[in-house]
Give the backbone structure.
Amino acid sequence: FAQTWNGGYDGGTGGATVFDVFLPDRESVDRLHAEFVTAGSRSRQTPVDAFWGPRYAIVEDPDGYLLGLKSPR
């Protein structure tokens, strides 16, 4: 199921916790994702309109934590 919302999920059984960062609008998801990637973070899920409503993306921070960038529905 994880690959439905996390295109970067590698299929490991250890799971992956994603810390959601709630943003004010859909454009902020695209902008912040681009800023993270430009700064050298790895994109794990490019911005998409998620099936549950919000705009959503995942980046991996320098310490390996996954951040879910999420707009309102």
User: Anything to note?
Assistant: The chain has a mean pLDDT of 85. DSSP finds two helices and four strands in the chain. The two ends are 21 Å apart (CA to CA). The longest helix spans residues 26-38.
